[in-house]
Design goal:
Elements lengths: L7 E4 L1 H9 L4 H10 L4 E4 L1 H11 L8 H14 L1 E2 L14 H12 L5 E2 L17 E2 L1 H17 L1
Parallel strand pairs: 1-2, 1-4, 2-3, 4-5
Helix pairs in contact: 1-2, 2-6, 3-4
């Protein structure tokens, strides 16, 4: 049997939020797999700041200890990188979303996981960087695991 490498992904802030608000969602299933160490999130300082701002938002009414615990866990399990210069300019995506693609590109063209994809389907970046919903990535993980069971 061949040794399986642990997949690395960039998780959109929307995926993290959905995983907290909808515990039965595919985003929550994926996040539990991340917490189990079976998928490694890749972040940079900007994405870490976005996660922190979102989790501390008073409108969410999340208990402070939950926000703090989640940020601590993410900081411990994440692969933190310094993004390289990004060769793609995309006027068809908001700048905050280009961030996800820049991190993914800098980490070796790893997948970006976003809750919705319709904004990205016509983007040139989506043709360069693998893009999944949480449900789509869970299916991809299943295929990967089946492959390694056979090999």
């Amino acid at each position: 049997m061949r040794a399986q490498t642990i997949p690395r992904v960039v998780l959109g802030a929307d995926v993290l939020l959905t995983s907290l608000l909808l515990p039965a969602s595919s985003a929550a299933q994926l996040f539990n797999i991340v917490l189990d160490g079976k998928v490694i999130p890749v972040i940079d300082s900007r994405l870490s700041s976005i996660y922190a701002t979102m989790l501390k938002c008073d409108d969410l009414n999340l208990p402070r200890n939950l926000s703090r615990d989640m940020l601590f866990k993410l900081s411990r399990i994440s692969d933190i990188i310094s993004p390289s210069p990004f060769p793609y300019l995309s006027e068809d995506l908001p700048p905050e979303d280009v961030l996800y693609f820049q991190i993914a590109f800098s980490a070796g063209t790893i997948p970006v996981i976003k809750s919705t994809l319709h904004y990205y389907l016509n983007s040139s970046l989506a043709k360069t960087i693998p893009l999944f919903t949480p449900a789509g990535f869970l299916k991809e993980l299943q295929h990967i695991n089946e492959y390694y069971e056979v090999v």
